[in-house]
Amino acid sequence: MQAFVYHIPTRVIFGKGTEAQTAEQVKQAGAKRVFLVYGGGSAKRSGLLDRIQADLAREGIACMTLGGVQANPRLGLARQGVQQAIEFGADLILAVGGGSVIDTAKAIAHGAACPGTDIWEFWLGRQKVTASLPVGVVLTISAAGSETSDSAVLTDEVTGTKRGLSTPFNRPLFAILDPELTYTLPRYQIACGIVDIMMHTMDRYFTPTKGNQLTDAFAEALLRTVIANGPAALENSRDYQAMSELMWCGSVSHNGLTGLGAAIDFAPHKLGHELSGRFDVAHGASLSTVWGHWARYCLHQDPARFAQFGRQVWGVTEPDDQSAAEQAIQCTVDFFHSLGMPTCFSELGVGVQPEEVLYQMADKATRGDTFLLGSFLPLNREKALEIYRLANC
Fold this sequence. Notes:
This protein is an alpha/beta fold. It folds into two domains: 11-182, 3-Layer(aba) Sandwich (Rossmann fold), CATH 3.40.50; 187-391, Dehydroquinate synthase-like - alpha domain (Dehydroquinate synthase-like, alpha domain, Up-down Bundle). It contains 16 helices and eight strands. Strands 1-8-5-4-2-3 form a six-stranded parallel beta sheet, with helices on both faces. Strands 6-7 form a two-stranded antiparallel sheet. A hairpin with a 4-residue loop joins β6 (151-156) and β7. The longest helix is centred in the middle third of the chain and has 23 residues, at 213-235. The chain starts with 10 loop residues before the first strand and ends with a helix.
């Protein structure tokens, strides 16, 4: 094992019926005024919001709500939330939803604690987060892992720029993980979540760092679990076993455990962010679109790593590393297809793009060719452009 520092302060409350513990967790945090953030109408229609607000009221905790969070969470709504949370005097931000809601809540928490700074300055790297309000989570979508991660993503809807921010202040105080809250998810959303969970793991697994046997084993076991349970979840979203395994995999995939001691890559994420920012496509779909093309472009860098991935995750038996690596990539692409997920631009629904658009995305991803993407095979603008070309079919 290589050296690492690992600290996860988030208290996880997992299992059936744990939603009922939300007010108790807020009370334990000492909060009196909760700013509750949610997405569309499903949280209302299901009665979840009403139940949470009623429980908070019984504990004498004031609550203000902000709905309307969209996929690829918008900077504008987060800014609005900051102002409302400050005016309300919020002392805890409660996210009820999936990754986009949680990331918006994190942004609001940072902005409310640092009222003199525009939150986008944090995401652009011009200001460092030095304080934040506590964030609690009631998870309703297994995908992003934001409920236990130090990451958050925002999209500036004016410029179409999507950026991620990593800071210890992004770690939620507590996370309620009740798998039954995911029972009503649409099939496409479940499929996108499966891809996101896998990609958070694979973007750590494909690393130039060697000698992390246990960390590799964690990642491989998580991927096998997702591959085994994903199809069952798509077949029946009320299959508690399948949905509960996906929920826990989602949290573990992005809390740092599957990449301990290693340099992370996340180049496919960066390439996918440009697709999401430009075309407003689902995050998971953007990742499945680019991954196979990224993998084939990077294969020469370390065929043995892809071969290990194939043997340990997909059960590939081919003894030759090159052949095993190629099979591993194809198995992954085929699995994405089996979920109904896209693996090229046409399947994504954006169509074949002109060279100018591909260049603009590559240029934006690499910040004018001043920033290398990833660590497994660092990508400059020209390399990023070549991967977009491969996916542009």
